[in-house]
Write a structure and sequence with these properties.
The complex is a heterodimer of chains A (300) and B (352). Chain A has 300 residues and is an all-alpha fold. Chain A has one domain. Chain A has 10 helices and no strands. Chain A is elongated, with a radius of gyration of 28 Å. Chain B has 2 domains: 194 residues, Rossmann fold (3-Layer(aba) Sandwich); 69 residues, 2-Layer Sandwich (Alpha-Beta Plaits). In chain B, 33% of the residues lie in helices and 26% in strands. Chain B contains 11 helices and 15 strands. The radius of gyration of chain B is 24 Å and the shape is elongated. Classes of the chains: A mainly alpha (300), B alpha/beta (352).
C-alpha cells in the first residue's frame, strides 16, 4: 500500500507540536493520552488540587493570629508532602501496574510485540509516562509548597532534598510496579502481584515519610550532606530500577530460542565427540534414536 | 518465555515432497518462475514438552497470493502463525518473510509483516485515530508520513466517519476493520490473519472478504489466512494448506486440492448429482441403478441424489434419457465441490 503524500504546512503550530511529539517514545504519548482521559486521574488530580487549596485557605484562616509568632511552614509542608506521597507512591505505581498488566488482557501485548518497539522501549515508555505524570502531580502542589516556604521555618535545601528523594523513591517504586505488571500474565498473578505491590508501596511510603519528615525536616541538612544523601539514595534506587527493568524486559521478550534449537532438523545430530565414537556405535545410536521416535509417536 | 521442556527434541528425517498438490508430512506449492516467495516456512517444528504442536511444516507463498491455512482446533495453525509473527520461537526449522529469517532477524521481519490475531485487546480511553497513530509511531513513522499513513488506512478500511469514536464502543465488525487497519499501517508485504471473520455478521464478512481480495489483487500483498468458515475461504483463497495434529496433510491450489480429493477417493471425474422431480418413486431408483457411472442412489418423495463418475457428455445423455423415459424432472444439477469437501475428506478429525 503506497502512502499518498498530502500537502504539508511546515509552519503551523499543529505540525510543530506533532514534530515535537515525534521525539518521544510512542508509549509515552499513548500513556499520557490515556491517563488524562481516565476517570481515576481526573478524580485524584482534582482531589489533590481541591484538597490542597481548601487546606491552605482554611489553615491560613485558622492560624492567622499565630502567623506573626510561629513558623507554620513545616506544618503545612508536611500535609502537602503526605498528599504528594499518596499520589506518587500509590496512584502512579498502581496506574503503571494496571497499564502493564492490561497489555496481557485479550492478547493486546501481541499487537505491541509485533511492532518494531523493543521490550526495553516498551518498559522505558511505561516508566517515562509515569514520570511525566509525577511532574504533573508535583506541579499541582508546587504553589502550595511555595506558600509553606513563605510561612517560614523551612529551608530551600530541605524542600529540594525531600522532593528529590520522594521523586527517586517514586520512580523506583513505579519501575517495580511495571515489573510486577509484566509478571501478571494470568489473572491470578495479577491479583497476587497487586497485593505485593500495595504492601511494598505502603512500606515504602511509611519509610519515606519517616526519613523525609523526621530526619530531613527535624534534623535539618546542609547542602553537602543533602547532595551526598541523595547521591547514595539515587545509586540504590537505580540499582532497584535496573533489576526491575531487566526482569520486565526479559518477561516481554518473545524471541528467546529454545534450548537445543536446530535450524535444519533433517541433519542427524552427533551427540558425542566424533573421535570417541566408533562408526558402528553411531549406527546403533541412530537406531536407538529411531526407536525413541517410534516410542514417542506411540505414546502420543 | 524460554521453552517449556523441549530440551532434546527428536526429529524425523523424512525427505521433503513436492508437486502440484501433495499430501503428507511436508509439501510445497507450485513454484512461480522468476518470483521468490515472500513467505516461506521450512521444516518448522514446535514442541511443548512431548506435545508436537507443529511438526515438519513447510510451505511457500508468493506476492498477490491469498493462502488459506485450515485445520481443526488444536491443529497447530495459530502456533505456526505466531512463529511467523515472531511471537514464539520454533523448536526447530525456520521461516522466512521476504527472505529474512524469523529466528535471526525478528526486527526486520516485523517491519515487513502485519499480524492480526483472532482476538485483540482494545486500549481504554482511546479513539480510532489515536489508536492508529500509536501503532504508526510504534513502527517509526514520523510527521507527515504518519499522518498520511493514518489517512490512507482510514480511507481503505472506511473508518473515516468513526475516526473520533472511542474504540471500546466499536462493533465487532468495525473492530475487525480497525484491526486490519492497524495491521496495514506500516504497509507490510505479508499479512497473517488469524480467524479474521470469527464472530462477524454476514455483511461484515462479505466486506472483510472484499478488503482481503483487494489487498492481494491490487496491492500484491501475500495473505495467509486461517478460518473455520471454509466456504468463505474457498471464495477468497487461491491456494490452501491443510494441517492436522501439527502436520500438513495437503497443500496446493484449491483446484489441485479438489483433484487430490478425487484421487484419494479413487474417482477421476466425479460429481454429486441432485434432482428434483414432481414425483419420485421406486421405479426411478430401479432405473437409475441400472445406468452406467451411477452409484449411491438415494430417493426421497420429490428428490433424488446420486454419485456420477462419467464426463459432462455422459451427464447430458443421462438427463436426456431421464426425460425420454418420462420421469417428471424439474431440476438437475451437479453439486459443486468445495474446499469444505476436500477438508472433510483429507482430515481425519485428529486432535492433540
Amino acid at each position: 500500500m503506497s502512502h499518498v503524500s498530502t500537502t504539508q504546512f511546515p509552519g503551523t503550530w499543529e505540525n510543530r507540536i506533532r514534530s515535537f511529539s515525534d521525539r518521544f517514545n510512542p508509549l509515552v504519548v499513548r500513556e499520557i493520552r490515556q491517563i488524562v482521559k481516565a476517570r481515576s486521574f481526573i478524580t485524584v488530580f482534582s482531589l489533590l488540587l481541591i484538597g490542597s487549596w481548601a487546606f491552605s485557605v482554611l489553615g491560613v484562616i485558622n492560624q492567622f493570629e499565630q502567623m506573626e509568632y510561629t513558623e507554620l511552614g513545616p506544618f503545612f509542608y508536611r500535609v502537602y508532602l503526605v498528599a504528594l506521597i499518596g499520589c506518587l507512591m500509590f496512584a502512579i505505581p498502581s496506574n503503571a501496574f494496571f497499564s502493564m498488566a492490561q497489555e496481557f488482557h485479550d492478547r493486546a501485548f501481541e499487537m505491541l510485540a509485533v511492532t518494531t518497539l523493543s521490550p526495553a522501549k516498551i518498559v522505558a515508555g511505561k516508566l517515562q509516562g509515569a514520570v511525566v505524570m509525577m511532574f504533573v502531580y508535583a506541579s499541582a502542589v508546587v504553589p502550595f509548597i511555595c506558600l509553606s516556604y513563605m510561612l517560614g521555618g523551612l529551608g530551600l535545601i530541605e524542600i529540594i532534598t525531600s522532593l528529590c528523594g520522594l521523586m527517586l523513591v517514586a520512580i523506583a517504586l513505579t519501575m517495580f510496579a511495571v515489573m510486577m505488571g509484566a509478571l501478571s500474565q494470568k489473572p491470578w498473578m495479577e491479583v497476587m502481584n497487586l497485593i505485593i505491590l500495595l504492601i511494598v508501596a505502603m512500606t515504602t511510603a511509611g519509610a519515606s515519610y519517616s526519613v523525609l519528615i523526621e530526619v530531613v525536616m527535624r534534623s535539618g541538612v546542609e547542602l553537602g550532606g543533602a547532595i551526598m544523601g541523595i547521591g547514595c539514595f539515587a545509586v540504590f534506587m537505580v540499582f532497584v530500577a535496573l533489576i526491575s527493568l531487566g526482569v520486565a524486559q526479559a518477561q516481554l521478550t518473545t524471541t528467546f530460542l529454545p534450548i537445543g534449537y536446530r535450524r535444519n532438523p533433517n541433519v542427524t545430530r552427533n551427540f558425542q565427540h566424533p573421535n570417541s565414537v566408533p562408526p558402528q556405535s553411531t549406527d546403533q545410536q541412530t537406531t536407538s534414536s529411531q526407536q525413541e521416535i517410534n516410542q514417542e509417536d506411540l505414546e502420543l | 518465555m524460554i521453552d517449556d521442556g523441549a530440551v532434546e527434541p527428536i526429529f524425523d528425517d523424512s525427505p521433503e515432497e513436492s508437486g502440484p498438490a501433495s499430501s503428507g508430512a511436508t509439501s510445497s506449492l507450485p513454484d512461480r518462475s522468476g518470483q521468490s516467495p515472500t513467505l516461506e516456512v521450512r521444516n518448522l517444528h514446535r514442541f511443548f514438552g512431548r506435545l508436537k504442536a507443529v511438526n515438519k511444516v513447510s510451505f511457500k507463498a508468493y506476492p498477490g497470493q491469498v493462502m488459506g491455512f485450515i485445520g481443526p482446533n488444536g491443529a497447530g495453525k495459530t502456533t505456526t502463525m505466531r512463529i511467523l509473527a515472531t511471537l514464539e520461537s520454533p523448536t526447530a526449522g525456520d521461516a522466512f518473510i521476504c527472505g529474512d529469517s524469523v529466528v535471526d532477524y525478528p526486527d526486520r521481519v516485523r517491519k515487513r509483516l502485519g499480524f492480526m490475531p483472532d482476538a485483540f485487546g482494545k486500549y481504554p480511553n482511546m479513539n480510532v485515530v489515536e489508536y492508529l497513530d500509536f501503532f504508526a509511531r510504534a513502527y517509526g513513522f514520523k510527521g507527515q508520513r504518519r499522518k498520511d499513513a493514518i489517512e490512507h488506512v482510514l480511507v481503505f478500511t472506511e473508518l473515516r466517519k468513526l475516526a473520533e469514536k472511542p474504540i471500546n464502543t466499536l462493533s465487532k465488525g468495525m473492530s475487525q476493520r480497525l484491526g486490519l487497519g492497524r495491521t496495514l499501517i506500516h504497509d507490510p508485504e505479508v499479512l497473517i490473519l488469524d480467524e479474521p471473520a470469527a464472530g462477524l455478521d454476514p455483511r461484515a464478512r462479505v466486506e472483510l472478504r472484499e478488503l482481503i481480495h483487494l489487498l492481494a489483487s491490487e496491492l500484491k500483498k501475500t495473505v495467509l489466512i486461517s478460518s473455520h468458515i471454509l466456504t468463505e475461504l474457498g471464495e477468497i483463497c487461491d491456494s490452501a494448506v491443510i494441517i492436522e495434529a501439527g502436520e500438513i496433510l495437503a497443500s496446493g491450489s484449491i483446484k489441485d486440492l479438489l483433484t487430490l480429493r478425487r484421487q484419494s477417493s479413487g474417482r477421476q471425474s466425479h460429481a454429486s448429482i441432485e434432482m428434483r422431480l414432481i414425483e419420485a418413486g421406486a421405479e426411478l431408483e430401479k432405473w437409475l441403478v441400472q445406468q452406467p457411472f451411477v452409484s449411491d442412489v438415494s430417493i426421497s418423495q420429490q428428490a433424488a441424489s446420486f454419485e456420477f463418475e462419467g464426463t459432462q457428455e455422459d451427464q447430458h445423455h443421462l438427463l436426456k434419457s431421464l426425460v425420454n423415459e418420462g420421469f417428471p424432472v424439474i431440476e438437475f444439477r451437479g453439486k459443486v465441490e468445495s474446499l469444505e469437501d476436500a477438508f472433510m475428506d483429507l482430515t481425519r478429525g485428529l486432535t492433540q
